[in-house]
Amino acid sequence: VEIVTDNEILEAQSWLAQTEGIFVEPASAAPIAGLLRLARENRRDLIPKDETVVCTCTGHGLKDPEVVSVKFSHAAPVAPNIEAVREAITRS
Q1: pLDDT tens across 37-58, in order?
Q2: Region of 42 on the Ramachandran plot (φ > 0 left; ψ -120 to 50 alpha; else beta)
Q3: Distance CA 68, CA 51 (A)
Q4: CA-to-CA distance for 14 and 43, rounded, in angstroms?
Q5: What is the number of other CB atoms lying within 10 angstroms of the CB of residue 48?
Q6: Which of 1, 4, 24, 76 is most exposed, with minimal Cβ within 10 Å?
Q7: Opening angle at CA 49, ends 44 and 54, nearest 5
């Protein structure tokens, strides 16, 4: 068992969304935060080189949207059609 900080959890939540396309609530990002910490610290005693590690992430990010909404407060609403969505994406 590892203890992770709230900041590490939020970083893991962001990493999952950016890298894997998975939007989870902070509690579901906690095991990923621990795994990332062990990898950063090169803790081979807990993560053997040829082993598979599985982290279950069951809580969807919309269970706690306030946590990530502060990062996107500058985003403007987009009309619900494909053309508007494409335009918004290409502007970013």
Answers
A1: 998 998 878 877 788 888 888 8
A2: left
A3: 32
A4: 23
A5: 9
A6: 1
A7: 90
For 63-76, write each residue's pLDDT tens digit: 877 777 776 656 67
Global confidence as pTM = 0.70
In terms of C-beta density within 10 A (0-12 exposed, 13-18 middle, 19 or more buried), how is residue 7 classed? Answer: exposed
Of 66, 56, 50, 62, give the one whose Cα is nearest residue 34.
56
Amino acid type, 76: A
E strand or H helix at 20: none
* 43/62 Cα distance (integer angstroms): 33
Residue with tokens 């970013």: 92
pLDDT score for 92: 57
Backbone angles phi, psi at 40, to 5 degrees: -60, -40
6: exposed, middle or buried (C-beta count within 10 Å: 0-12, 13-18, 19+)? exposed
